[in-house]
Each structure stands twice: as structure tokens, then as C-alpha cells.
Amino acid sequence: MTDAPLNPDFLIATEQGLRALFPATHDLALRKCQPRLDRHARDFVARSPFVCIGTQTPDGRADVSPRGDPCGFVQVLDDRTLLIPDRPGNNRLDTLSNLIANPAIGLLFMVPGFDDTLRINGRAQVTRDPDVLARLAVNGRLPGVAIVVSVTEVFLHCAKAFRRSDLWNPERRQNRREMPSLVHMILDQTGGAPEDPSALAKLDSDLEEAYRQSMY
User: Fold this and answer.
1) Does an H or E element contain 200, and which?
2) Which end of the chain is more exposed for a tag (fewer CB within 10 A), N or C?
């Protein structure tokens, strides 16, 4: 799995061996897992403009994809069902094709300014039902398909990761210009970016225009 030298004496290969290294979890951490969306989970989803979607390929490779829209873009249909619009993207279709092959799905909802997060696990289907898509329209534009999540597990996740990262602190914002643009990096990775700064600037401008024209 890695080219780095690892001492096999210290590899953890069983869950029993793993759990022996840690204290037992507390009772509340176990009891907080709920089988449905209560009022707190519903409120959290309604406030969230951003969710990460975890899926798996047919051969078990993991994948995580971000989704974002105005707050409440993920709709709660009932206490066991969520609707997620699929907006225009790069058409790799990783998440959607994974779900068709393996319906297991994991969701991590974030709310700007909240250090806690909401985790939802379940099973998902992909639909093009016009009645479902109509519920998810923005500015009169419908998503091509939607993800329908049947919820099996819901729980709030503590704030430690966000406290450690200080993610929402404006003083910790980094200067995007300290790294090359997205287009520049991808071209470097796939064969070489043009050396002419004006050519790169044109590519960056074209990408921004594509964003404006294809958000929905």
C-alpha cells in the first residue's frame, strides 16, 4: 500500500488490537446514534450550505465529493429521507456511478460558524423523477438527477476537529495567490502549463466565465 518503510511489528491489523490501544468510549457517544432525523438534525440540514458525500466504487475504493448550494439545498422529505440535487459538474459522475453500483452513502454536513457537524449514513438511489427534480429547482433550472437517501444512522459530531483546525477563524485564512491557480496546477499535472503568463491568465478567465455560465 505504500513505498515508505514500515516496521511490521507496529502495524495494527485487527479491531481488537486497535481497541486495546484506546480507552472505552463513553455511553453517550454510543447512545447518540439515532435511526431517523429528529428536529435538531432537520434544523442542522436546513442551515447547511455544504455537505461532503462519501461513496465506494464496486471494488471498494473510497471516494468523497463536496456539494454546495444555498442553505437548505438538501431537503428533508420525511424523518427517514433526504433529497440531494446533482448540479452541473465535470461529468466524471464518480458519486452517482458509485451509488448505482453500491448504494451505501455517508454524509457530513457543515454550517459556517458551527464547530460541530452532522453525520448521516444510509442507502441511496439516483432518480430523474420530474416531481422530485421540480422540488430542487434553482432559478427555474432543474438538476439533471437527484440522490434520494434512505437514512439509517444520524448523529452529531463533536467540535474537536474544527477547534483544532480553527477553520472558521478569519485570521487563519490563507492567501490563495500563494499557490498556482487551479488551471495551472492541473495543466502541470497533465502535461505542462503554458509559460506565457498572458496565456495562463486567459485560461483562468475562461474558467471563471465557465463557472458563471454553468453553476446551475
Assistant:
1) helix 197-214
2) N
